[in-house]
Amino acid sequence: MNNELPNKHLVARSFGNAAAQYDDVAVLQRQTGDELLERLSLVTLKPKRVLDLGVGTGRNLSLLAKHYPEAQLLALDIAPAMLKQARQSYQKSSGLKRWLPYAKTPHYLAGDAEHLPLADNSVDLVFANLSLQWCDPRTSFAEIQRVLRPDGLLMFTSLGPDTLRELRQAWAEVDDYPHVNMFYDMHDVGEAMMAAGLAEPVLDTDRYTLTYDSAMALMKDLKILGARNLNAGRRKGLTGKNTIKQVGDAYEQFRRDDLLPATYEVVYGHAWGGQLKQQKVDGEVRIPLNQLQGRKAV
């Protein structure tokens, strides 16, 4: 694993700036969140403490509360502005129920997945939807293993290296600078999980295709989402209109049915904390990591 990781201060600032408009364009985040929650529903688990790691605007926090009404929810994000948005979203979705005497209010924590502000063995479930791709996997999985109780569960999604491959290729025809963030592949993620001591890691990949009228519309959405180019070797300074036009022209080679595709490779994974556990996901076949192959679907 030799990907150069983005500066976390830039990550926090970028997502903080995106907080107010994030939900307007977070199509992929909703799809992967729903899929992750559906997978979670197949697991027999009664967590006392649930960590929404990279809570974002809090959309999944309310759904986790419905899944586990007795659990104490912890909402953690690297961007304080996102936490503020998550708090407002949770209060709105809870309505008057939040004033009931038995209602549990989530704890909101500003923090980084590589340095979790939580005690050892303090969490029963870690739910992380499209947040771990900004982290060093060995460090973040070691932290997750540290805070998970021995019978705790990690469920997550991340982005794989084929994400935005069309945009990457279009930029490559214009200059030699990296313009699209690079992400770890499934096998690197699996190795990091095993190195951290997580038990029974299971991984698979899926592909999603979003469509746009123009390359500019895609880049505008990425900006709103806070998914800016955070590569250490990125070009400094502003990008000129002529360069953007060249990228748009290069992207046209991918146009189908009058729309431009944007491919996202999503890695789905789960593992147990501590030693090998008896709980199983219904109907699942466990495959050694060295035999894993991504299943591809659009």
TrEMBL record:
Protein's pathway: Cofactor biosynthesis; biotin biosynthesis
Domain Methyltransferase type stretches: 51-156
CDD domains for the chain: AdoMet_MTases (cd02440)
Keyword vocabulary terms for this entry: Biotin biosynthesis, Methyltransferase, S-adenosyl-L-methionine, Transferase
Catalytic activity: malonyl-[ACP] + S-adenosyl-L-methionine = malonyl-[ACP] methyl ester + S-adenosyl-L-homocysteine
Entry-linked InterPro entries: BioC (IPR011814), Malonyl-ACP_OMT (IPR050602), Methyltransf_11 (IPR013216), SAM-dependent_MTases_sf (IPR029063)
Classification via Gene3D superfamilies: Vaccinia Virus protein VP39
Gene Ontology biological-process annotations: biotin biosynthetic process; methylation
EC number(s) on file: 2.1.1.197
MF term (GO), any: malonyl-CoA methyltransferase activity
HAMAP family noted in UniProt: BioC (MF_00835)
Protein name: malonyl-[acyl-carrier protein] O-methyltransferase
